[in-house]
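Need the bound structure for manganese (II) ion, inputs here:
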Amino acid sequence: MKTGRDYKFWFCTGSQDLYGDECLAHVAEHSAIMVDGLNKSGVLPFEVVLKPTLLTNEMIRRTFNEANSDEDCAGVITWMHTFSPAKSWILGLQEYRKPLLHLHTQFNQEIPYETIDMDFMNEYQSAHGDREYGHIVSRMGIERKVIMGFWDDKNVQERIASWMRTAVGVMESSHIRVMRIADNMRNVAVTEGDKVEAQIKFGWEVDAYPVNEIAEAVEQVSKGDIDALVEEYYDKYDILLEGRDAAEFKKHVAVQAGIEIGFERFLEEKNYQAIVTHFGDLGSLKQLPGLAIQRLMEKGYGFGAEGDWKTAAMVRLMKIMTANVPNAKGTSMLEDYTYNLVPGKEGIIQAHMLEICPSIADGPIGIKVQPLSMGDREDPARLVFSAKEGKGVATSLIDLGNRFRLIINAVNCKKVEKPMPHLPVAQAFWTPEPNMQVGTEAWIYAGGAHHTAFSYDLSVEQMVDWADAMGIESVVIDKNTDIRTLKNELRWNSICYR
Ligand code: MN
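Answer from helper R.:
Posting the output first, comments after.
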C-alpha cells in the first residue's frame, strides 16, 4: 500500500546550563541509551532520532523550526531529564506545527535507596522538570499527547507506537485527495458536508470528475490486461456460480477487472487516494463497481458509497494509520444494515450493496454474480466473505452545520450463529459497546451515520487523539457510556465546539 514517507520522530531532551558539563554529559548519554533502546525494542513502527539536549530559548526555537521544515519528521518527543525553565520553550512551541508527544518518563526505573543524595536528585528530576514543561504547554493551549511510565516498559513503548501511528495520520491527512465520480445520493443528509471546511480542518482535497471520464479509462484497458487479472481472480478466489452459466459468469467478472485496472490508472494519473461512487450515476459503466472497489480498498484506497466523501477520506486515513501493523486484521467501509434482537444474541449485520474490503475477511473469499435490487445495470460481480472476530472501532464523521463531530464506537465483532446462504454480499456482525441498547441509542443521539469507517487495528484512544489534533469534537461510545452522561456531553460540546 502506498502511504507517505519513511517518517522519523525526533527525541528532544530538555535541560538547562545550570548543572555543569558533567551533569549535561550524563543527560546526553542517558538520552542516547533511551533512544537506542526504543529503536531496538522492535515495538515502534518508526525510527526515533536523537537530537542534542535542548538548553536555551534559541536552541529550542531552532530545533522546533527544523522539525517543521524536515519533511521526514512526523513529530517531536519531548522529555525533561532535569529541570528546564519553561519560558525558554514558549517561542519554539509557538512556532511548532507538528504532532507533539510529552514522554513523561525517567532514566532510572528504581530509586537507588543506598546511594541517593542531593546530586542524584538534581540530575534525575523528571518528576519536577516535566511538571514545569507540562504547565507551559497547557497554558499555551497546545495539543499534545502525554504518556507516562518507564521508557523501557513494553506497555509504554506500545503506547508510543500507537501515538506514532496517530501522528502519521495527522501528517498524512493533508495528502488525502478524494475523487468524486458522482455527487451525493439525492435527498440523503448524513453523507453531505462542507468540503471547504474539511480542507481547512483536515487538509483533504475533494474533487469531482464526470463519471464518463473514468469510464473512458475503463474502456481503454486492453483485453490482455483484463484476461490476466481475471486469471488472478480465478486463482485466488472461490468461484460461486450458483447455477449461472460459467462463460457468462466470467464475462461479468471481466467487467470488474476492467473497472479495477481503469479506475486505478485514472486515480494514479490524477493523484487521488480515495474514491466515491454512486449506484444511481454510473454513466457508461456496465456494472456498479463492486469487486473492483473491494480490491482497490484492499490496496489501500479509501472508499465511500453514494457520494460519501467523508467516509472515503476516513477509510483512507485509517488505512494509512494501520499501514504495516503486524498481523493486521483489516480496515473497511461498512454500513449498519439489519439487527438481531434476540436477547443475549444481539448484533448488527454490517454490509453494503457490494463494497466491503476483503482485508477484514476471515477464511475463504468467493466471487458471486447477482442482480442488484437498485440501479439499472447488469448483475455485478462481488467478493463475498464473512469478517473476523474481535474488537474494533467504528467511526462516523458527521457535519453538524457549524462543526464536524467524529463518533467513535468500540465494537465486538462476532460470527453470526447460522450460515446465510442467500446473502450475496460480504458481511461483518458486531455488538456495539457497552451493549446493543445503550450503544445504539448513544449512536443515534450523537447523530452517527449509517456508513462507518471501521478497523480492527486501531483503538478508541488513537481516533480520539487524531480528532483532538485536528481540533474537532469527538464522541466516544464504549464500555463507560451511559445515556444521561452522553446527552450532557453532547450539550456541553455544543458550546465548547461552536
Ligand atoms: Mn450506503
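Comments: Residues 166 and 462 are 6 Å apart (CA to CA). The first strand starts at residue 8 and ends at 14.
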